[in-house]
Specification:
Number of helices: 2
InterPro entries: NADH_Ub_cplx-1_asu_su-1
Largest sheet: none
Strand content: under 5%
Order of helices and strands: HH
Structural class: mainly alpha
Number of strands: 0
Number of domains: 1
Organism: Klebsormidium nitens
Protein name: NADH dehydrogenase [ubiquinone] 1 alpha subcomplex subunit 1
Membrane topology: Single-pass membrane protein
Subcellular location: Mitochondrion inner membrane
Length: 70
């Protein structure tokens, strides 16, 4: 009967989907962002620049405000 062949296909399809979903979920859980795909030297250089700029901004973070006037 045709419906008897459906469960194996459903199981195989589910397992194929989980093979991609589980590593993606774990990577996002551990690192907090999606896995970088298709990144080249420019993307890595840009990420390094962003990290350096954020560090410099963090070092200079004591914001000098004048007295609060109301």
């Amino acid at each position: 009967m045709p419906y008897e062949s459906l469960p194996p296909f459903i199981i195989m399809g589910t397992m194929l989907a989980l093979m991609g979903a589980i590593p993606s979920f774990l990577h996002k859980t551990v690192y907090g962002k999606p896995k970088p795909v298709m990144q080249d030297a420019f993307d890595y250089a840009l990420a390094e620049r962003d990290r350096r700029v954020l560090e410099e901004a963090h070092v200079e973070s004591p914001i000098k405000h004048g007295p609060i006037s109301t």
